[in-house]
Fold this protein.
Amino acid sequence: PVSPLLLASGMARDWPDARGIWHNDSKTFLVWVNEEDHLRVISMQKGGNMKEVFTRFCTGLTKIEALFKQKGHEFMWNEHLGYVLTCPSNLGTGLRGGVHVKLPNLSKHEKFGDILKKLRLQKRGT
C-alpha cells in the first residue's frame, strides 16, 4: 500500500501474509484477496467486447457470493449505503469500470485536461 492513511491505519502490518491473486487460465478473471478490500474482483480482456467482460464479471461474482452463502457468510450490505467497503469512495455498488485506450495525439493536446474534466474522466498511466 502506498497511501500514508492506509499505512497509518495498520493495513500493511502483516503484509504480505494472507494476500494473493487467484486467476483463471486465460487471466481474464482475477480475484485479488486482501489487498485494500477483502476482495477485488477483476474481469478484463483485450479488444472491445465490453459485454463479454461484464458478463464474465457478473457470473464470477455471483458464483463467489453463492460460495460465501454456503459457508454462512455474505457481503456487508447497508440499506442506505449499499455495499460497505474499506474505502468510503467505493460505497454503493463497489463497481468501478475502466477502459485503457491509447490516444497519443489527443493526450498531447493543450485542452486534453479540459476535455477529460467535461466528460468526468480520469487520465491514468498503465
In short: The helical segments are 4-8, 50-70, 112-119. The two ends are 18 Å apart (CA to CA). The chain has one domain: 4-96.
